[in-house]
Every structure is written in C-alpha cells, then in structure tokens.
Write a structure and sequence with these properties.
Length: 475
C-alpha cells in the first residue's frame, strides 16, 4: 500500500524536477486531510505538459501567424430564396423529426467565473427577464419544457459546471423543483481545471494545502462531455446531436430545429450560428476558411487590412461573427476524444490572481495582473471536422448576452432586447404593439417560453388585442 510518506517523497522529487518546490513549503505542518488534498492535486497535474505550456504561453507569448490561405467562410443567409429556401424547408422537417425521435440534446456551458458581471453565484442563477426576474436557468428550462411538449419527447439537458459553482448550480435546480423538468433528464457535470501560473512559471497557492486552479475554458467541455459519462448517457438515449449554448444569452434558441436539421442534412460534425458584424472590428470571432478548414479567427488576430475589406456592395468581406452557438455531432465528440488527451490549443489570459505569498505565506490581492490563466476554446474544434456549416441569425432574435454589470451586453441591454423580440413576435401575431419614434418598443414585454419559443406558437395563444404604451405586459 502506498503511504502518505511514499507519496510525499515521490511528489517532492517531481516538484523539485519541475521547479515547483514552493508547493511543499508548509507540507509538514498540514494535517492528514490537507496533505492528502495537496498530494491529490499534484497527482492530477500533467507536469511534463505543464513545463511546455509554461515555456510556450507564460514565459513567452505565442505569436499568432495568420496563414496566407485565409478566406471568409461561406454561410447560409437567414432569409433564403430559391433552392436555399427549399433546403431550409427540408432542414426544418429533418430537425423536427430528430426532435420527435429524441435525437437532440441541449448542452449549456455554465462553468465560467462571470467576473465581469460580478454576480455572487453561478451566472445561470442571475435574474434575467425584464418583469418577473426569472433566472437564466429558469428561462432555458421553460424553453426545453416547451420543446418537450411540442415534440412529445423530452430533451435531455446537460449542464457543465465548474468545481467552484457546481454545488450552487445543483442547489438552484433542487430549490426550484427543476423548474418542472424531469430531474432524470437534467445532468450536471464538472469541467476540468488548469493551474493558474505566475509570470515566473511557479504555480500559485491559495493556501498551504491548495494550488490555485482555474476552469479550463469552454473548450474543456469537449473533454468533459466524454470524461463525465455524458457522451455514454447520450448514446444510451439515442441522442445524435448536441445543441451547444452559453449560459448568458436568454434569447438563445436552446434547440433550433432548423439549425440542427441543416447541420444534419449536410452531414456536418460541428456547425455554428453567425451574426453579420456591425463594424469591422466588432469583438466577435470571425468565421474563416483556413487551408479550407472552418476556423474562428479571433477579432484580435484578424489584421486591419482584412477586417476592413469590403465587397462591391459595400458589405464587409469578413462579415460572419461568432456568437458561440453550435450543433455538435455526438460521434464527433467521441472521435475528438478517441486519442486520449484532446489537443486543442490553449489561450493565454493575463489575470489578477489572488494567492498566498510564496515566501511569507501572507494573502496577496493583486491590483495588477500577476499571472496567466490557460483556457481552451470550443471553436478550436471546428477545423477537426470535415464538414461544418454556418447559419446566419438575427441579433434581436437570438443575441441578448448578459456579460457586464453595466453598459454594453449588460442586464439592461439584454432586457431591452428581450422586450424588443417579444414585441416583434406579438406584432407578427396581430397584436398592436406601441413603438417610439425610433422604432423601439414602447413597453416592457416579457414573453414566457411556455407561451412561445417561436412566433408560430403564438397562433394558439390567448393574446391581447394591444399593448398600451409605457406599460408592462407579462405573457
Ligand atoms: P465567458 O467568456 O463570458 O467567461 O464565457 P466567463 O468566465 O463566464 O465570464 P468573465 O469573462 O469572467 O466575465 C462564455 C461562456 O462559456 C462558459 C461560461 O459559463 C459562459 O457560458 N465557460 C467559460 C465555461 O463553461 N467554462 C469556462 O472555463 C469558461
């Protein structure tokens, strides 16, 4: 049997070999549980790989070199005509069929730290809707309930959390009776972590028995789906496609039959939705073909001369911006994981990392970035597929993110967009909706997903003839 003393000796050698002996500075003063905790953390780290990462991403900043072969990726325009319209009709039929057959799962990545929003809990527990203040998780739950009702099959829902917010996320669902979903159709799993690294290459400690770890990015989801058993669960349920979305966008179509159908019709492995950028340097990743492979080039990596290029009609040549909505084939996730460690690139983020001082053991709350977090991004899996489609969507229809405490992409802008979308849908259903001179909706409207997840659902709804200016309408 391996004793703590044996483990300590092995770990001490390992740490010395990798220049990380400070991790053991207070080991002998720890109680048994603390020693075990620290030894387990040390065992979980791939040290050889870490040395490479420190060299590549921490001591150096990898230079991004855009290949010469970069082209804008083709995409399906949102309002198709002719053959494309026929294809959309077929795609919708196929998507509807896949939903009726229970072959589509919903997947939300909710492991982020939400630092910019500053909400003291998982972001999914943020009150997001304009009148009743339903949480983001509540909004998605109602969407999925409605899909289940429409298609006669529940949509299994996978929720990726992080070690920091897993318990609070589960508690939110427990306390709210799973928002009427069947708990057996809701699966939680934690994503992986990476050590946060000081600029000198040493790992930060949060206490004498603990290395500072950060969630490994939304790209970690592709590994976590397999490792957690979610992929196996999907296969047992007959799920073939995963509808991937982020936790901060209450207007997202958690499962979109047209998008799923188009992706399946084309035999794609991983597909994406896009928004036309409003200006060349809008902070959205750019859908490109690099060596003929679908690739997202981050806005900071697209040189100005390409970002500014325009077509004859004046539109941007690199128009398609990524809003982190994907459909991913289950067998693609399996394939990505087949070789063991999934080798997506890492992205470096300079961060202020609170820690204990390596020498004095005192707590340090830095005011300037003092180290690096390494994260993987889900869109870096796109080039691993053979086929990938991009579908245009509409900003008001599907993009109302809550990222910041105030200003752009905040709760205020999101609530406005939710209200605008509800106004558009009601108007299309014949309700008189008040509008200001600039065209914006002159009311606060909240439309539950239980009432409608798409405008056509409103045909069957009991609707008022009009909404009065300046009032609140909860439907
Ligand atoms: P963001 O890039 O907005 O990051 O995540 P964040 O951590 O939530 O927020 P900030 O940057 O600290 O303010 C986009 C989506 O990816 C998920 C988030 O939960 C969100 O749905 N995400 C991000 C993860 O699931 N895991 C991660 O490690 C990072």
């Amino acid at each position: 049997m391996t004793t703590t003393a044996d483990r300590k000796q092995t770990a001490a050698h390992l740490l010395a070999a990798h220049g990380q002996s400070h991790i053991f500075a207070a080991f002998d003063q720890l109680d048994e549980a603390g020693q075990t905790r620290l030894l387990d953390q040390i065992d979980a780290i791939n040290w050889t790989n870490l040395d490479n990462l420190v060299e590549t991403y921490v001591k150096n900043k990898p230079l991004f070199e855009l290949p010469d072969t970069v082209e804008p990726a083709p995409y399906y325009a949102k309002d198709p005509t002719g053959d494309a319209a026929d294809k959309f009709a077929k795609a919708r039929e196929l998507g509807d069929q896949l939903l009726r057959e229970g072959k589509v799962a919903a997947f939300v990545v909710a492991g982020g730290s939400g630092t910019r929003l500053g909400w003291p809990g998982p972001k999914g527990t943020y009150p997001a809707t304009p009148i009743s203040g339903k949480t983001l998780f509540h909004v998605f739950s109602e969407y999925l309930l409605k899909v289940g009702q429409k298609y006669g099959k529940p949509v299994p829902w996978y929720i990726m959390t992080s070690p920091v917010n897993d318990a609070a996320t589960r508690a939110h669902f427990e306390e709210n009776n799973y928002f009427d979903l069947d708990p057996s159709d809701v699966m939680f799993f934690e994503q992986g972590t990476m050590p946060s690294i000081a600029y000198d290459g040493r790992l930060f400690m949060s206490g004498p028995d603990s290395i500072v770890l950060n969630a490994d990015g939304h790209g970690g989801s592709l590994k976590a789906l397999a490792r957690s058993g979610a992929v196996n669960d999907m296969k047992q349920r007959g799920v073939e496609q995963i509808s991937y979305f982020q936790v901060d966008n209450p207007n997202v179509k958690c499962v979109d039959p047209l998008f799923v159908g188009l992706h399946a019709l084309e035999g794609a492995q991983m597909s994406s939705k896009m928004l036309p950028k409003v200006e060349p340097r809008e902070k959205l990743g750019n859908f490109c073909l690099v060596d003929n492979k679908m690739t997202v080039v981050e806005y900071s990596d697209l040189p100005d001369e390409l970002a500014e290029q325009r077509l004859e009609d004046g539109s941007l040549r690199f128009l398609a911006g990524s809003i982190a909505i994907h459909v991913i084939a289950v067998d693609f996730v399996e394939k990505l994981n087949a070789g063991g460690d999934l080798a997506l690139p890492f992205h470096r983020a300079d961060k202020k990392v609170p820690h204990i001082d390596f020498e004095s053991g005192q707590t340090v709350e830095p005011t300037e970035p003092n180290g690096v977090k390494l994260e993987q991004f889900v869109f870096d899996a796109l080039p691993f597929g053979d086929t990938s489609i991009v579908l245009e969507t509409d900003r008001v229809e599907e993009f109302a993110p809550i990222k910041n405490a105030e200003g752009v992409d905040s709760a205020v802008t999101s609530k406005q967009l939710q209200s605008e979308r509800a106004g558009n849908w009601l108007e299309a259903a014949g309700v008189k909706v008040p509008r200001r001179a600039d065209g914006s909706v002159d009311a606060i409207i909240e439309l539950s997903h239980l009432t409608a997840i798409e405008p056509a659902d409103l045909r069957a709804a009991d609707l008022p003839a009009q909404i009065k200016p300046g009032t609140e309408a909860l439907l």
